[in-house]
Amino acid sequence: MDNRKPTPKNIDEYIAGFPEDIQGILQKIRAVIHEAAPEARETISYQVPTFTLKGNLVHFAAFKQHISFFPASSGVERFKSELAGYQTSKGTIQFPLGQPIPYDLIREITIFRVQENLARAEAKARKKK
């Protein structure tokens, strides 16, 4: 028997699969990302909520003990000092569920990623000319 959850079709479906308290956190993260990147599009990629803008922008996901935020390796590296209190890896940040979620930091990182993606797309467009 296959006990894996089916891949959600959209972010609403993904969030609905969690307890109410976690849903609130995920909805807040989603809103923060929308504020920071109003032009970004929502999708599901790698079975998690994803925002795209001229390529992948950020992803987020809920786990048993933490919320993961995936701003690519550049997002983790750029905010290394601000992230000192959190578990990080090359492109992932873990925010423990027992601590306040740093929504302002998520906003700042998302804004950084927007600028990065737009600059990369602009450079690519200039190269084609």
Structure description:
This protein is of the alpha+beta class. 43% of the residues lie in helices and 23% in strands. A hairpin with a 3-residue loop joins β2 and β3. The longest helix is centred in the C-terminal third of the chain and has 26 residues. The radius of gyration is 15 Å and the shape is globular. The termini are far apart. The model has no long low-confidence stretch (mean pLDDT 94).
What's the structural blueprint in terms of helices and strands?
Elements: H1 11-16, H2 20-36, E1 41-45, E2 48-52, E3 56-62, E4 66-70, H3 72-78, E5 87-89, E6 92-96, H4 103-128
Antiparallel strand pairs: 1-2, 2-3, 3-4, 4-6, 5-6
Helix pairs in contact: 2-4, 3-4
Explain briefly what this protein structure is.
The protein has 4 helices and 6 strands; from the N terminus they run H-H-E-E-E-E-H-E-E-H.
What keywords describe this structure?
single chain, 129 residues, alpha+beta, 6-stranded antiparallel beta sheet, 6 strands
Given as residue ranges, the uncertain stretches (5+ residues, pLDDT < 50) are none
Number of helices: 4
Mean pLDDT across the residues is 94
Strand-and-helix sequence, N→C? HHEEEEHEEH
Q: How much strand content do the residues show? A: 15-25%
Shape: globular
Spatial extent as radius of gyration: 15 Å
- β-strand number: 6
Q: State the end-to-end CA separation.
A: 54 Å
| Quaternary structure state of the chains depicted | single chain
Q: What is the percent of helical residues?
A: 40-55%
Q: What structural category do the secondary elements indicate?
A: alpha+beta
Strand count, sense and barrel status of the largest sheet are: 6 strands, antiparallel
Q: Which strand order does the major sheet show? A: 1-2-3-4-6-5
